[in-house]
Amino acid sequence: MDDVVGRRWQTHTWTDERHTQDNITTRLAEISTEWQLSNEVVTVVHDGPANMRECGSRNGWVNVDCSAHKIHLCVMSAIGIDNVSVAS
Hints:
This protein is of the alpha+beta class. The protein has helices at residues 21-34, 55-58, 67-78, and strands spanning 2-5, 11-15, 43-46, 62-65.
């Protein structure tokens, strides 16, 4: 289950399915149609996991890794932090 944050900071689930390439590709296409953006979406930007790499091209969109996420990973690695933990 994946959550997104709404305008008033409430979380909303956009899918209960496994995050397979087929499920994500289908759901992104459905959402773009529901929001009447099918003709407006040209690019999908993501953090680079394998299950997202082909979703854009399957929907006719350009697939782009998020530069900010890549920089974040480099900085975290450079300062010796491999995982994010929550303080208790």
